[in-house]
Amino acid sequence: MRAPRRSALLGLLVMGMGPVLMAATQAGASGQPVIYTSVVDAVIHPVSAEYMIQTMDSADEAGAALVVFTLRTPGGLVDSTRDIVTRMLAAKTPIAVFIGPSGSRAASAGFILTIAADIAAMAPGTHIGAAHPVSGGGEAMDETTSEKAAQDVAAYTRTLAGGRHRNVTLSEEAVTESRAFTEREAADATPPLVDIIANDVPDLLRQLDGRTITRFDGSTVVLQTSGAELRTDEMTFRQRVLSAIAHPNIAYILLSLGMLGLTVELWNPGAVLPGVVGGVSLLLAFFALRLLPVNYAGVLLIALGILLLILEIKVTSYGLLFAGGTISLVFGSMILVDPRMPELQISFQVVGPIVITALVLALFLVRLGVMAQRQRPVTGSEGMIGVTGHTMTTIHANGVGQVRAQGEIWRATTTEDIAEGAPVRVTDIDGLTLTVRKV
């Protein structure tokens, strides 16, 4: 019985060591350390959070030596930021956040992610900070609510900065006073806000080689980055699409297209295509707006503006509905995104063409409506007025004769003498008798 037991124990040992051996194999077949790199150039929302967490999961499974996030962001949602930070603190792989290239920034949520990382690095000409929280719905918060939100985020930032041995005071001021810091100000502070100033990722890895870092739990790790194998983790197609939709300009285009499509479908039932395109666009816009600090008064103003432009076609308002729709559309576009976050404002280069297109379309439809109203009737008794023909018999003044008009022979009368075969025009109709005059 001992031999089978030994075989069973050996089998269990091999099975248990399988994942470890696989991770060691994945960490580099030639013994080289593996470093995962990702570029996050987006608002911090559930999609970008999913992407960053996915990268950290892959690095942990591969037994990587380091994860480097190149971060460029105007900010984002607090809940998504907390999800990313929670995963950072629990990661087995050290996490580096690099703000670059030059000219980039990590504001608001990006500042918190930088403070939470094991290694915080910035490129020359970059800045971080301005992390004061604002309302996710775009509406102004009262003083008490604003203070509570600021203190909550400030306490969270102090905890992260203290755990990472970074400047707690400056971290708090970035939240409570919306302070921002250049790379030199962040690195020269005592204690510093960031650890390294590097030109790019390769320069960062050269400076990190052999460096001992302290993790959030107090353990220490010596980084080996020389000759490392770099693996770039990119967004999936689904993540790229959803992240693009969440851009303020794309969300505005989808919102305008969706409202216009549904309005056209309601005024022209059965057109199908405008309704389908409008419905899909509107649902995608709602998804994007849920991820942005949107002022819903702006959404309502845009909807009202498009509705007034459409009503101009149906209602005689002498241009009042058209003017009101234009004003509503412009002001709704201006206040759609929280004005306290200028980096997320919708570009006028997007608003202008959309507003002008809506106005041109409305003017075109109004012109078609006016032209249709001015056209004379072509059916019924009214359709005979103005029709030309010729006499088939001589018609004396106040007498009765026959004329051919519209391919038919009619009984006709006139107030003047008209010879046979003369061209005539119908001026009135009474039952089946036409009143005509010479052309």
Describe the structure.
The longest helix has 27 residues, at 348-374. The protein folds into three domains: 24-235, 2-enoyl-CoA Hydratase, Chain A, domain 1 (Alpha-Beta Complex); 247-374, no CATH class; 381-438, OB fold (Dihydrolipoamide Acetyltransferase, E2P) (Beta Barrel), CATH 2.40.50. Strand 15 (423-430) and strand 16 (433-438) form a beta hairpin. The strands form four sheets. It has a six-stranded parallel sheet, with helices on both faces. Strands 12-13-14-16-15 form a five-stranded mixed beta barrel. Helix 5 packs antiparallel against helix 6, helix 10 runs antiparallel to helix 11 and helix 12 runs parallel beside helix 14. Residues 6-10 and 12-29 have low confidence and may be disordered. With 439 residues, it is an alpha/beta fold. It has helices at residues 2-26, 46-62, 78-90, 109-116, 143-163, 168-176, 183-188, 201-208, 237-245, 248-267, 273-290, 296-314, 320-334, 348-374; strands spanning 34-41, 66-72, 95-99, 105-107, 119-122, 127-129, 180-182, 196-197, 212-214, 220-222, 229-232, 388-391, 400-405, 408-413, 423-430, 433-438.
Please describe the topology of this protein:
Blueprint: H1 2-26, E1 34-41, H2 46-62, E2 66-72, H3 78-90, E3 95-99, E4 105-107, H4 109-116, E5 119-122, E6 127-129, H5 143-163, H6 168-176, E7 180-182, H7 183-188, E8 196-197, H8 201-208, E9 212-214, E10 220-222, E11 229-232, H9 237-245, H10 248-267, H11 273-290, H12 296-314, H13 320-334, H14 348-374, E12 388-391, E13 400-405, E14 408-413, E15 423-430, E16 433-438
Helix pairs in contact: 2-3, 3-4, 5-6, 10-11, 10-12, 12-13, 12-14, 13-14
